[in-house]
Amino acid sequence: MTTIKGEIPHELEKEFRRIIALKYGLKKGNLSLALQNAIEEWIIKQKRISTTDYKETELLLKQIRKEFPYQFTAVGSEGKIIAYAPSLIELYQKLDLSAKVLIIEPEISILNKTYKKRQLSWNLKRKRMVSSK
Amino acid sequence: MELKTKKDGIIKVNVKCWSFYPSDYRVKEFVMNIQLYSPQQKSWIEYHNMLLDTGFDGDILIPMKDFEKHGFLQVLSIESGQWEAESVSGEKLKLISSFSELRIDDYQIEVMVESFTGNNSGILGRGILIRLKTTIDGKNEQTCIEID
After folding, report:
1. What does the alpha-carbon distance between residue B54 and residue A31 come to, in Å, rounded to a whole number?
2. How many C-beta atoms lie closer than 10 Å to residue A25's C-beta?
3. pLDDT classification of A110: cutoffs 50, 70, 90
4. What is the Cα–Cα distance from B56 to A118, expressed in whole angstroms?
5. How many CB atoms are closer than 10 A to CB A52?
6. How much is the ipTM here?
7. What does the alpha-carbon distance between residue A130 and residue A127 come to, in Å, rounded to a whole number?
8. Rounded distance, CA B139 to CA B129, Å?
């Protein structure tokens, strides 16, 4: 663990602390946890190629699947085809991973992608409450 | 772990079993040992005692630090970030997704690998279970799969 120092507007700090208190409570360490999550999310966002445009994605998917049927395809920025292979392992062996790519699976793939919404879990962990005397 | 071969007439079935994993003094979890192909290492990585969770309707969820370490962030699915997950408490989380191959004993399948910021859990979901014949054998405290 390490300490980082920086300046942010006072109002932003107040709002940050308020939301942490609402979401996680006033327990010690929650600020660090929330800060860590925020930084992680920011890092991932910077690393990720934007795929939030649904229409654009659908169009690219159709085009590439037509051109490379039955293949897993790695697409770089601006939709450039970097590599393709009939299996994921063969495709990953072709990639050096120094640059980020997006993977398009073949249409016939049996991957579990029916819905764009996942049910995460119904796994509830029970914890014995400490009785207050 | 044991490997059994049953002969029933002409049908041969390989059965692979894993003992329940005691996560605390009372609860024993249904687990499997699996291997997942790492795009970064270009080799198979082992996951011991990976929890089976019928509540998760995806294939496999791995801890965020593993997702990053094994290079899945470099090979995201084109539809990554367009999926959201809802927990039992109604909390909504944005999932990131990639692909890999998963091995359970001799059985190898393509899977969608997912994670989200802050996730420390590794679970196998219904996306895997619907492709297997799984027995949760509570009396013998083991989880078994049959591979044809």
Report:
1. 33
2. 8
3. low
4. 7
5. 9
6. 0.81
7. 9
8. 21
- CB-based contact A118 B59, cutoff 8 Å: no
Joined tokens for residue A120: 């995460």
pLDDT value, residue A133: 47
Q: Report the alpha-carbon distance of residue B76 to residue B27 in Å, rounded.
A: 35
How far, rounded to the nearest angstrom, does the alpha carbon of residue A101 sit from its chain's CA centroid? 14
Cβ-in-10-Å burial (0-12, 13-18, 19+) of B100 comes to buried
Count other C-beta atoms under 10 Å from residue B107's C-beta.
16
Number of structural domains chain B divides into: 1
Rounded Cα distance, A74 and B92, in Å:
29
Residue B22, domain CATH = 2.40.70.10
Cβ-defined contact of A104 to B111 (cutoff 8 Å) = no
pLDDT on residue B80: 80
In DSSP notation, B4-32 reads EEEEETTEEEEEEEEEPEESSSS-EE-EE
Structural domain that includes position B19 = 2-147
* Alpha carbon of B7: minimum distance to chain A alpha carbons (Å): 31
Give dist(CA B102, CA B100) in Å, integer.
Answer: 7
Indicate the length of chain B as a whole number.
148
CA–CA dist B68, B61 (Å, integer): 13
Only one residue has tokens 């027995």, namely B135
Q: Identify whether the C-beta of residue B28 lies closer than 8 Å to the C-beta of residue B20.
A: yes
Among A62, A115, A118, A128, pick the best mutation site for testing chain B contact (most B Cβ within 10 A): A118
